[in-house]
From TrEMBL:
InterPro entries: Globin-like_sf, Globin/Proto
GO MF annotation list: heme binding; oxygen binding
Protein's UniProt name: Uncharacterized protein
Matches recorded under SUPFAM superfamilies: Globin-like (SSF46458)
Listed CDD domains: TrHb3_P
Amino acid sequence: MKFETINQESIAKLMEIFYEKVRKDKDLGPIFNNAIGTSDEEWKEHKAKIGNFWAGMLLGEGDYNGQPLKKHLD
């Protein structure tokens, strides 16, 4: 999928597309499910949080308050 404009809506759509594929992947799915959980509600929260991260990075918007690198090093 190609996006013409980067905005909150396109970031949210990208999160849906990307994480749908991650959840179905035979290698990545179990890793992410172990870290995030298996319920749609847990994934909804994760996608919103990461969407806020990207909105902050790309648009200077969002209210992400976390340390993403630390999560990847743990």
